[in-house]
Automatic annotation (TrEMBL):
Name used for this protein in its record: biotin carboxylase
Keywords noted in UniProt: ATP-binding, Biotin, Ligase, Nucleotide-binding
Cofactor: biotin
Domain Lipoyl-binding span(s) in chain numbering: 595-666
InterPro entries in alphabetical order: ATP-grasp (IPR011761), BC-like_N (IPR005481), Biotin_carboxylase_complex (IPR050856), Biotin_carboxylation_dom (IPR011764), Biotin_COase_C (IPR005482), Biotin_lipoyl (IPR000089), CPAse_ATP-bd (IPR005479), PreATP-grasp_dom_sf (IPR016185)
GO molecular function: ATP binding; biotin carboxylase activity; metal ion binding
PANTHER family: CARBOXYLASE:PYRUVATE/ACETYL-COA/PROPIONYL-COA CARBOXYLASE, METHYLCROTONOYL-COA CARBOXYLASE SUBUNIT ALPHA, MITOCHONDRIAL-RELATED
Keyword ATP-binding attached: yes
Source species of the chain: Euzebya pacifica
Domain Biotin carboxylation stretches: 18-469
Pathway involvement of the protein, from the record: Amino-acid degradation; L-leucine degradation
Residue span(s) of domain ATP-grasp: 137-340
Pfam family membership, one: Biotin_carb_C
EC annotation from Swiss-Prot or TrEMBL: 6.3.4.14
Length: 672
């Protein structure tokens, strides 16, 4: 599947652009990933950083590092002139953009070339074309790549859009032509909702991309999201490296990715790969890229399953490791080699898929609270290891997770002989992964992997809508384990100080009753030492805790627990099923355990105040919108929890930390 399909492949150089130093214009796990691969192949590496990332792992890993500017991305990682200057001052001959930030910015690619540097990626023209969803779909239609029924025209009047929507039919997807990441996107299932959907999508598109152009396409309500990895050189060779299934998503953002897809057959795979190669060849693509498709699992198109072009990502994808694990091809290495003018050393027939790989994205977010992004200090970080396990991470213990950047912390990937082995390995790896100090989606990811629908390979893009895996009730056995661990640890400490006297009494076994605060819940716990072990009661339910802090058992069941002590009597606790923040209110200093509620509204995350909907002295009703905050590309609305008079509120532009009071309401006196 090549444009020229030379036999044998041409391995001469075309306009070689030699360089020995690579600047990585990114941060976090992808910067670490690119730096490691570049160094493994003999390149000197340069990191760039903002003030918030001065001590980040990617900075320490590189041979050299250059400060770009303040924490705000617009003043650092998105500052094209600063990145070019950093390359010049550090002696870099090439720039790798990673993904996100400037990776798909054609103006940046042009600026790199104009500065006499090598952009490790496609041409600016290819980035421009595929970055415009409307133009991309028109080009793909001309190339014969399958499309969903839709409208990508230049006439953007409401009259035309409403008429085209009627032609296409429902359900309908309204999309920003310059969009991405789910922004400027609305699903319409009722024609009466279309005018409002068009207006809302336009507003969001203008705010996010500065372009309110919309496209329309027939919506598939339960499709699979399947994409093809392509690799192309400057000699006209294009190969497809198999597919990835990215169907498990929340808010159009991928959560789980795997290769190969469990949903397609060999005929469909071949047809989809041919379509992807056609798409890349038609625009003269160079480097690593991904052609994304929607797969209609309920319909066939001739001899293969029906699929339609969605978009092309003109960069390395977050999920590229699963392709690397099943093909054995280092995509970053080949990005570097193609950028030097080398021809691909393999053809389509050389690509063989070995086993199965699955990747999950570890985010600093709270799935049980609308996937709100979280901030904090990484107090403990222990990535899992073992056969078939790979972790791409850009964090370390002691590092601050701020509201300035995307909340993804790491990627955990497992490879196995087959899908079920990869799935089991990955779930087990997540059980063992320790990331304490900020709320993450670790246990949520493990529940997704163990859900029977996912295990059977049946998850579509509606999986997280159809199945609730975000909330899990607090297991009293976990509370018993924590309480027992605290008591056994305290007893062991006392024994070291007073051998033979720890816990001594001339009375009967004493009962120690106390409240524990586990997360946001207050739980009544009592402990009593017995000949059999610790009898622990959690809200009246009895458990027997035995063993030592290092080898704990609850009712005979082994519990793998690790804890990190914070100040003020607080513990960060890791259990395979949960990560808990535990404190004893009786040990906290005065005022440390104040709770919000009854008119005291606090920030659920660190971020900026973007809107305030009421003024001091105004009467508000319960549920009314008071404050809008923004962090990590997300907005969150804070509403009044009681009716009353607003007596205090933050101002637009304020930066507030998680837990900070943003408004106070004096409740209405209802009498009594």
């Amino acid at each position: 599947m090549t444009r020229s399909d030379p036999t044998p492949l041409d391995t001469t150089l075309v306009d070689p652009a030699p360089f020995d130093t690579v600047l990585v214009a990114n941060r976090g796990e992808i910067a670490v990933r690119v730096i490691r691969s570049a160094r493994a192949h003999g390149y000197r590496t340069v990191a760039v950083y903002s003030d918030a990332d001065a001590d980040a792992p990617h900075v320490a890993l590189a041979d050299d590092a250059v400060r770009l500017g303040p924490a705000a991305a617009a003043q650092s990682y998105l500052d094209i002139d600063a990145v070019i200057d950093a390359a010049r001052t550090s002696g870099a001959g090439a720039i790798h953009p990673g993904y996100g930030f400037l990776a798909e910015n054609a103006r940046f690619a042009r600026a790199v070339a104009e500065a006499g540097l090598v952009f490790i990626g496609p041409t600016p023209e290819a980035i421009d074309l595929m970055g415009d969803k409307a133009a991309a779909k028109r080009r793909m239609a001309d190339a014969g790549v399958p499309l969903l029924p839709g409208y990508q025209g230049t006439d953007q009047s409401d009259e035309t859009l409403l008429a085209e929507a009627d032609r296409i039919g429902l359900p309908l997807m309204v999309k920003a032509a310059a969009g991405g990441g789910g922004k400027g996107m609305r699903l319409v299932t009722d024609a009466a909702d279309l005018p409002n959907a068009l207006a809302a999508a336009r507003r969001e598109a203008t705010s996010a991309f500065g372009d309110d152009t919309l496209i329309l396409e027939r919506a598939l309500l339960h499709p699979r999201h399947v994409e093809i990895q392509v690799l192309a050189d400057t000699h006209g060779n294009v190969v497809a490296l198999g597919e990835r299934d990215c169907s498990v998503q929340r808010r159009h953002q991928k959560v789980v990715e795997e290769a190969p897809s469990p949903a397609i057959d060999d005929v469909t795979r071949s047809a989809m790969q041919q379509a992807a190669v056609t798409a890349a060849a038609d625009i003269g693509y160079v480097g690593a890229g991904t052609v994304e498709f929607l797969l209609d699992v309920e319909r066939r198109d001739g001899d293969h399953q029906a699929f339609a072009f969605l978009e092309m990502n003109t960069r390395l994808q977050v999920e590229h490791p699963v392709t690397e694990l099943v093909t054995g091809i280092d995509l970053v290495e080949w990005q570097l080699r193609v950028a030097r003018g080398e021809a691909l050393a393999f053809g389509q027939d050389d690509i063989v898929l070995d086993g199965h790989a699955i990747e999950v994205r570890l985010y600093a977010e709270d799935p049980a609270n609308g996937y709100l992004p979280q901030t904090g200090t990484i107090e403990a970080w222990q990535p899992p290891t073992g056969v078939g396990i790979r972790v791409d991470a850009g964090i370390a213990a002691g590092q601050q997770v701020t509201a300035h950047y995307d909340p993804m912390l790491a990627k955990v990937i497992a490879h196995g002989r087959d899908r079920d082995e990869a799935r089991r390995r990955l779930a087990d790896a997540l059980d063992r992964l320790v990331c304490l100090g900020t709320t993450t989606n670790r246990t949520f990811l493990a529940r997704v992997l163990r859900h029977p629908v996912f295990a059977d390979g049946g998850a579509t893009t509606s999986f997280l809508t159809d199945h609730d895996v975000t909330t899990v009730a607090l297991d009293p056995r976990d509370v018993a384990a924590v309480a027992g661990w605290r008591q056994l640890t305290a007893t062991a400490d006392a024994e070291r100080h007073s051998p033979g006297l720890a816990g001594w009494t001339n009375a009967t076994w004493l009962v120690d009753a106390r409240p524990l605060r586990v997360g946001g819940d207050h739980v009544a716990v009592s402990l009593q030492a017995t000949d059999a072990g610790l009898s622990v009661s959690v809200e009246g339910e009895p458990f027997l805790v035995t063993g030592t802090p290092e080898a704990l058992r609850v009712d005979g069941r082994p519990v793998h627990l690790s804890a990190h002590r914070l100040g003020e009597g607080r513990l960060l606790v890791h259990l395979s099923e949960a990560d808990l923040v535990v404190s004893d209110p009786t040990e906290l200093p005065p005022g440390a355990d104040d709770a919000a509620g009854a008119g005291i509204l606090t920030a659920p995350m660190h971020g900026a105040v973007t809107a305030v909907e009421a003024t001091v002295g105004q009467d508000v009703t319960a549920g009314s919108q008071l404050v809008v905050m923004e962090a990590m590309k997300m907005e969150h609305v804070i509403r009044a929890d009681v009716a009353g008079t607003l007596v205090e509120v933050v101002e637009v532009g304020d930066q507030v930390g998680v837990g900070a009071v943003v408004a106070r309401i004096e409740p209405t006196d209802t009498g009594g």
